[in-house]
Specification:
The protein is an all-alpha fold.
């Protein structure tokens, strides 16, 4: 998606939207003591940090390192490949988390005992 935004000339709007998104997300994250940190949450945080870190590296690479003349589309392909791998990884992780979720609160619709 990012290569298309560059071609359309909306890179500044993209950067502003990313900045606004990060401000909103950091404002909505609860304090560390609000909820217990479980292994699944640690995996989710690690996935988010790795995803953001990889995206930052790709943006810096495109801004600072010119593509070789034989491969002018190299940065575009790197963004597309990274996006696919990241989205596929998120899908696998979230499906695994959904199917292996431990629910301690009981099942929905459980009969009440007096």
């Amino acid at each position: 998606m990012y290569p298309l935004l560059i071609r359309d000339g909306v890179a500044l709007a993209y950067a502003a939207t990313i900045g606004l998104y990060l401000l909103v997300i950091t404002a909505l994250v609860p304090a560390d003591g609000a909820q217990p940190v479980t292994l699944a949450k640690q995996h989710g945080r690690l996935l988010a940090v790795l995803g953001c870190g990889g995206a930052v590296v790709l943006h810096l690479l495109q801004a600072l390192v010119p593509a070789p003349q034989q491969l002018p589309w190299l940065h575009d392909r790197l963004f597309i490949t990274y996006s696919f791998v990241f989205m596929a990884g998120c899908m696998v992780y979230l499906n695994w988390r959904q199917w292996h979720h431990q629910d301690d609160s009981g099942r929905v619709g459980k009969a009440k005992t007096a």
